[in-house]
Amino acid sequence: MIGILAFIVVFGVLVTVHELGHMIVAKRSGIMCPEFAIGMGPKLFSYKYNDTQYTLRLLPIGGYVRMAAEEMEVNPLNSGMRIQLKVNDRNEITHIILDDKHNFTHIEEVEVIESDIKDEMTVKVLRLHDNEEISYSIAHEAYFVQNSELERIAPRSARFESKSVFARFMTLFAGPAMNFVLAFVLFTLLFYINGKPSEEPVVGVVADDTPAEEAGLEEGDRLLSINGTGVDSWDHMSQIIQNEGESELDIVVQNDGEERVLEMTPVVDTTELPDGETMERLIIGIGAANEHGAVSPLWWGVQETYEMGTMIFHLVVDMFISIFEGTFSFDMLNGPVGIYKVTEDVAAQGLMTLINFTAILSVNLGIMNLLPIPALDGGRILFVLYEGIFRKPLNKKVEINIQLIGVLFVLMVMILVTWNDIKTFFL
């Protein structure tokens, strides 16, 4: 149960932050956002505020912001349909009433002849009380009314494609950017709570029942040399231990100006990786001392986010290279099932470990969404950049076909990755 809750919370936070980034910048750019959804599938809860329907859906595997756009506008009006209209003093439609569940007064009964809510923003009707044909313009602020609910009709000026190249670029980029911001916040929080392991070869923790404890190594000891090799940093110390193998080590340490020589033999530590493989390394059972500070954790958070992003980017590049080299394996990827299993294992290690894992996932989500794949933010950004460079949008039919190919590609990859995860973790 803890694993399931942890997965829902972690995935929910990542998706919410990502989609919130899109929506905040979209609204600041004047783009209407009819729906902000967390999860997919059937609606569990909804709340409307400022023309945006906030919904929570059944399946915790994604989310979306539905922005007003020409291809997203669904016209519920059909020729011959009888509806009611409310107009303003400029004879513009403010409300198109689709049923009788309303309290509006001073309305007109009409029959739809034709309508255009994408380009012309007009509705041509037959007015029933005098059989006169009239063409109405739709007001800048107008609504469909059905089941006592109002859904605003997006004016052309509030649609995604009507905005500048820069505004659209920033709207699309804001989602991944917010994932990097979330990672920075979480890493910084951890540094404020736990501090940062020092690069200096100073002992901060001595584990029980380890070679270090048995040899008398103490907190605060500074390692000067191992088997005659001077120790420059914590990483250097670890490397020396690996290079020396399972042989006895003569370690010179210093504490309060006093030097001691300790003898110990490292042991093999085996770690099981999420994909079922194991990793072995030699340890003596010590942890680094932690540094703390009032301002330093902010800089450490930036560094950790950058370093984690760089590492994940290199892994992604290596993965694509492996496709062309013929060495690619789906074991390199984790889908929702794999992420759930890893989250379950991480949650068992405690809250701090789970927060760190969430930060890493957030960086990963940000980078993956920037890949130039049409179904992802990176692919849509490419279309916007194309328009910015060539001063004209890509042919709409070509763009739709490329988007469709991208969606099919992502779905195929997700199915294959999910099946591979099921085989790895459950079969």
Descriptive report:
It is a single chain. By secondary structure, the chain is of the alpha+beta class. The protein folds into three domains: 74-153, no CATH class; 197-290, Roll (Pdz3 Domain), CATH 2.30.42; 296-426, no CATH class. It has nine helices and 18 strands. It has helices spanning 2-28, 165-194, 211-215, 234-244, 296-325, 336-347, 351-369, 377-390, 396-426, and strands spanning 35-49, 52-66, 82-87, 92-97, 108-116, 122-127, 132-146, 149-153, 196-197, 203-206, 222-226, 229-230, 249-255, 258-264, 267-272, 278-283, 286-288, 290-291. The strands form six sheets. A five-stranded mixed beta barrel has the order 3-4-7-6-5. A four-stranded antiparallel beta sheet has the order 12-11-13-14.
- Number of extended strands: 18
In spatial order, strands of the major sheet run 3-4-7-6-5
Tell me the span between the first and last alpha carbons. 21 Å
Tally of discrete structural domains = 3
Structural class: alpha+beta
Radius of gyration, rounded? 30 Å
Strand content: 25-35%
Provide the helix percentage: 40-55%
**Mean pLDDT level:** 90
Shape: elongated
The helix count comes to 9
Poorly predicted regions: none
Largest sheet, described in full?
Answer: 5 strands, mixed, barrel
